[in-house]
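Issue: copy button drops trailing tokens. Both records pasted manually instead:
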Amino acid sequence: MIDFHHVPFAQERIDERLKNWARWVKPRKTSWVHPMWRGFKPSEVWTQVEVSVPLDPLDAQKLERGVSALPDQHKFSIRWCYVYRGNPARAARMVGETQEGLAALISAARVMLVNRGV
């Protein structure tokens, strides 16, 4: 079983930046709210406070340029790992690799991004 969430210690910094990039790049559904309900506040008070990590769009754009310059297999692997997710066996078939090969492509793509100074 391959753990696609495992990140080597040397790649942790680029992994955090890639997570930021994925949040910036990920397609979102737009929702429409009727103007009458736009300012509605429910009577229930939620005590849970969500703390979010702020998005850094400039760094995300820099990483998008770097990812788009990667070789096709590495580009697909990194986009699958961080943005699209899904079935790893299917992603491996799409890139023409085994699951071990897909994991190696993801790791190699991270190293390429670091080496290119992205």
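Record 2 (pasted manually too):
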Amino acid sequence: MKRLVAFFVLITAVGLIAHGVPAPRLMWKGYLTELQTKLPEYDIQIDSVVLGLSHKPVLMVSGIQIKSKANADRLDVGLLRVELGQIAGWRRGEWVVSDLKLKGLRSIKTTQQDCEGLPIRCWHSMPMRVWAQARLMLENENKNSQGETRKFHIQNMEWEQVEFLNQITQMPGSEFGLSVEELKYKSPVQSGMFSDENGTGALSAGIKLSDSSKASAPAPQQKPNQLYVSIRAKQALLNHAPNSSGVNSEAWKFDEVESDFTGNWLSGPSSYPWSGSVAVGSLILRQDGNDPFLKLQASELRTYISRLDSPADHQAAFSSRQIEGGLPAQDFLFKQAEWTFTHENAEAWTFDLLLKQARNLNDTTTAEITPATIPGSEGTPAQAQTRVLGCEVSTSYWFWQDGWFRQQSSQPKANSEKPLSGVWCKK
């Protein structure tokens, strides 16, 4: 009888350990202290850590709170669950994350001004910095058989209730944000105990964009600024290789990228219903080392937008055969681009475009346009010109007013009925 009781106690204990048991603070306090030392400008707190031990160990971290000591920026995470493919990781010589779940993340970024004209100041750097330091710590924790740091390979990932919110301190109650209601990702490489299975990866996401920074007190009949975006893509394999400077790079290649959006957005005193789509034949994102910037290459971009209250008079399309650039706020080059929109003298223009982003308050964003001929297109090659975002005197103005694109030779006037946004002046 005692042996039977001991057996059941053992089975119960094993089950509890496999399912997850709280880890004593002494086990993980050293990692928290090291992370705090590497990020002294933040105050980092963790409520609990739970471990599940099996052939696929599970780590669950809940109640993560990170606050900036300099301002009101903060990052809260409800739950981070990481499942490791331990045997596959030993075989590959890297960290194989068979399943990663992120739930209840809320990042708040404060700024004294909005992001128009200089979006880099509204970039959420705190989540990126914390992730980069945590990943570096884990990569250096164990070396592979060649003595190199162990890299991360995420096989499956799921996000729920993830929000990035920007608040303008000089305008109380004014904020804009991006909410990932659900995101699912599957890597094209699925690593098992004894071998890897190569296939096609997949990415899908549902995202909500909201903005109250342009109208602190909208009229009662107006709907709030909200756009709902869906994204779908297939991920293809891409061999990692050092860049031209010899720095190791991480790269991701997505094919058949499709996105649709719909919703209401405020434009001056009126709110308009919008619908549109974006399609990309191929997209490559590359990150060099611990560089916080992403380099981007894309081909066969096609975009379309329509204002649903009067679609016959409010449709626009933009396409580009090739794109090169970087995020955030890096320069972009669009090759063999075509642009058309409905107005009194509608026509399509074909061109190459170099968009130079402003990186500080003393810089200006410029657009250098050169004519291009696209085989099979009926568009007219655009005139060579340089446009500046924002100016006082010019002979030609492109701008956004009263919910649509405008162009005229006289200086546009802003008023309470038709405020201006994004004026591009011919240099």
